[in-house]
Write a structure and sequence with these properties.
The chain is an alpha/beta fold and 496 residues long. Helix content is 40%, strand content 20%. It folds into 2 domains: 11-265 and 470-486, 3-Layer(aba) Sandwich (Aldehyde Dehydrogenase, Chain A, domain 1); 269-458, Aldehyde Dehydrogenase, Chain A, domain 2. The strands form 5 sheets. The protein has a 7-stranded mixed β-sheet with strand order 15-16-17-14-13-18-19, with helices on both faces. The radius of gyration is 23 Å and the shape is globular. The structure holds adenosine-5'-diphosphate.
Length: 496
C-alpha cells in the first residue's frame, strides 16, 4: 500500500464517467491497495473504476488510526461535533447530483431514486447533528443514605461498519452520522459493488472538517477485512447491514470479544390487504414498496396477502400498473426501474419465478429476463398470482421486481402466515378498520409496520427488525443511543 501524494478526490471527479482508479481512505490519507478489483455499471456491464484492495493490513492500519482519533474525537464538544456534521450535511446536499450519479453508475437504481437516497441519507446526518447535543445521563434515587447516583452516556469507541450495495450512500450515513455524533470513530468497509459512494462521502467528510482518522473507508476483500474488524480489541462494536447469513457469521466472530453488534439483516415483508381497504391506494402502495430500487430493498413487499373478497380486484389494479412500468438504464428519464445489481441476481430471480410457475402459480405479467434485450442486468417487472405460500418465491427474500399474491380469508391465518418466517423486519397492512389495525399490528412479529403507508424509513424513526432480521435500531434517538455506553456512578457519604 502506498500513500498518495495528492488527495485523489472522488468528489472532484464525480462528473467524469471514467473513474479509473480509486483508493481507500485511512487516517485522512488516500491509500492504494496491494491489488485491485473492478466496479462495473450493471446497466451495461461497463467497467467504471478500478479500486485498490487494501486487505487485512489496510484494515489494521485503519483500526489503529480510528483508535488514535477516538482519544481526541470523544473529547470534542458535542456542539462542535454537531457543527462539523452539519457542514458535512450541507456539502452532501450541494453535491447531491454528483453523488446520485455515482449511485446510479455503481448499482443501477434510477437517477431519480438515487437523488432521493442522497437526501434520505443526509437526513440522518442532520438528525444526528441535532441529537449530538441531547446525549445525556440522569440523576437517580439511591437506597443508601447520604448518597447520590447518576448515569453518564459515553461513546462506545471504534466501530467497524460493513455496508451493502443497495443504498451505497444512505446505509453509511445511517450508521456513521449517529456514531460520529456520539463521539465514536469508524472503519467502514463498503460493498465491493459500490465503493465509490463511500469514498465520495469520505472526501466530503474531510472537506467538512471531520478530523483525520475519525472516518476511514477500507475497500477490498470482505473475508480478509471482516475478521480484522471483528477480531480487533480496539473495535468495540460492529454495525452491519446485509444478509442474515453474513450477519450471523459476524455475530459469531464478534462473540469472542463480546463486542456489541447492530445488525440490519434480511426481510420477508408481508403486505396485507384486508377486504375493507382502499384497493387503489393499496395497489399504489405495493408498486411503491415492491418496485422501488427494482425490489432490491430489505423492506420490499415480499408476499402480498389479500383477502379473497378483494384479491381479483387487487390483481387487476396491480396488473394495470405493473404492465406500464418500464425497465431501462437508470439515467434514462423514462425508466421506472433500473437493472438488478448483477447478472447473478437476474438468474436468481428468474429461478424463483420459474419455480413458482412450475408450482402452478399464474404469471400475470412479466416473468422473463430482459438482459439480452436491454444489454444489462435487467428483469421484467413481474406479477405472480395464486401460488402456494410455501413456494420459494414466498419463503425467500426475492430482491427483485417480482410481486406475488396469496389469497387468505381468516385474520388468524393471515397473522399466522405473516409470522411463518424467520424474518421480522418490515410489514404493511391496508385496512380502514381501527380494530383490525390493533389486532394485526400487535399480532404480527415485525420491527416496523406501515399501516396504509408503503414506506416506513425516516431519520427520526427507529429502523430495525426482530427475529433473524436483526438486532438494534437505526434512526431517531435510538440510533444515537446504540453507539453509547451507559455508565452508572454512585457517590456515597454526601454531607447532610
Ligand atoms: P449481498 O449478498 O446482498 O451482497 P452480503 O451480506 O453478502 O449481502 O454483503 C453485505 C456486506 O457484507 C458487503 O459489504 C460484503 O462485502 C460484506 N461481507 C460479505 N461476506 C462477508 C464476510 N465473510 N465477512 C465480512 N463481511 C462480509
Amino acid at each position: 500500500m502506498t500513500v498518495m501524494d495528492r488527495p485523489a478526490s472522488i468528489a472532484d471527479r464525480l462528473d467524469d464517467k471514467t473513474l479509473l482508479r480509486s483508493e481507500s481512505f485511512i487516517g485522512g490519507q488516500w491509500v492504494t491497495g496491494t491489488s485491485s478489483f473492478e466496479v462495473s455499471n450493471p446497466a451495461n456491464g461497463e467497467v467504471i473504476a478500478e479500486v485498490g484492495d487494501v486487505g487485512a493490513e489496510g484494515a489494521r492500519q485503519a483500526v489503529t488510526k480510528a483508535a488514535e482519533a477516538f482519544e481526541t474525537w470523544k473529547k470534542v464538544s458535542p456542539f462542535e461535533r454537531a457543527r462539523i456534521l452539519m457542514k458535512w450535511y450541507d456539502l452532501i446536499l450541494e453535491n447531491q447530483a454528483d453523488l446520485a450519479k455515482l449511485i446510479t453508475l455503481e448499482m443501477g437504481k434510477t437517477y431519480r431514486e438515487a437523488r432521493g437516497e442522497v437526501v434520505y441519507g443526509a437526513g440522518f446526518i442532520e438528525w444526528s447533528a441535532e441529537e449530538a447535543k441531547r446525549v445525556h445521563g440522569e440523576t437517580l434515587p439511591t437506597p443508601f443514605p447520604n448518597s447520590r447516583g447518576w448515569t453518564i452516556r459515553q461513546p462506545i469507541g471504534v466501530v467497524g461498519c460493513i455496508t451493502p450495495w443497495n443504498f451505497p450512500n444512505a446505509m453509511i450515513t445511517r450508521k456513521c452520522a449517529p456514531a460520529l455524533a456520539a463521539g465514536c470513530t469508524m472503519v467502514i468497509k463498503p460493498a465491493p459493488e459500490t465503493p465509490l459512494s463511500a469514498l465520495a462521502l469520505a472526501e466530503l467528510a474531510k472537506r467538512a472538517g471531520v478530523p483525520d482518522g475519525v472516518f476511514n473507508v477500507v475497500c477490498g476483500d470482505a473475508q480478509k477485512i471482516g475478521p480484522v474488524l471483528t477480531g480487533s480489541d480496539a473495535v468495540r462494536m460492529i454495525g452491519f447491514t446485509g444478509s442474515t447469513e453474513v450477519g450471523k457469521l459476524l455475530m459469531r466472530q464478534a462473540a469472542d470479544g463480546v463486542k456489541r453488534v447492530a445488525l440490519e439483516l434480511g426481510g420477508n415483508a408481508p403486505f396485507i390487504v384486508m377486504d375493507d381497504a382502499d384497493i387503489e391506494k393499496a395497489a399504489d402502495g405495493i408498486i411503491a414498496s415492491k418496485f422501488r430500487v427494482s425490489g432490491q430493498t430489505c423492506v420490499s413487499a415480499n408476499r402480498i396477502i389479500a383477502q379473497p373478497g378483494i384479491a381479483d380486484k387487487l390483481v387487476e389494479a396491480l396488473e394495470a400498473r405493473i404492465s406500464r412500468l418500464k425497465a431501462g438504464d437508470g439515467f434514462a428519464e423514462d425508466s421506472d426501474l433500473g437493472p438488478l445489481v448483477h447478472m447473478e441476481a437476474v438468474s436468481r430471480v428468474d429461478a424463483l419465478v420459474k419455480q413458482a410457475r412450475e408450482a402452478g402459480a399464474r404469471i400475470v405479467t412479466g416473468g422473463k429476463r430482459l438482459d439480452e434485450e436491454l444489454g444489462g442486468a435487467f428483469y421484467a417487472p413481474t406479477l405472480i398470482d395464486g401460488g402456494d405460500p410455501k413456494m420459494d418465491v414466498a419463503c425467500h427474500e426475492i430482491f427483485g421486481p417480482v410481486a406475488s399474491v396469496y389469497r387468505i380469508e381468516r385474520e388468524e391465518d393471515i397473522i399466522r402466515l405473516a409470522n411463518d418466517t424467520p424474518y421480522g423486519l418490515a410489514a404493511y397492512i391496508y385496512t380502514r378498520d381501527v380494530n383490525r389495525v390493533h389486532r394485526l399490528t400487535e399480532g404480527i412479529e415485525y420491527g416496523m409496520i406501515g399501516v396504509n403507508a408503503p414506506m416506513v424509513g425516516a431519520a427520526s424513526t427507529p429502523f430495525g427488525g426482530v427475529k433473524e432480521s436483526g438486532i438494534g435500531r437505526e434512526g431517531g434517538k435510538w440510533g444515537v443511543e446504540e453507539f453509547t455506553e451507559l455508565k452508572y456512578v454512585l457517590l456515597g457519604g454526601v454531607d447532610g
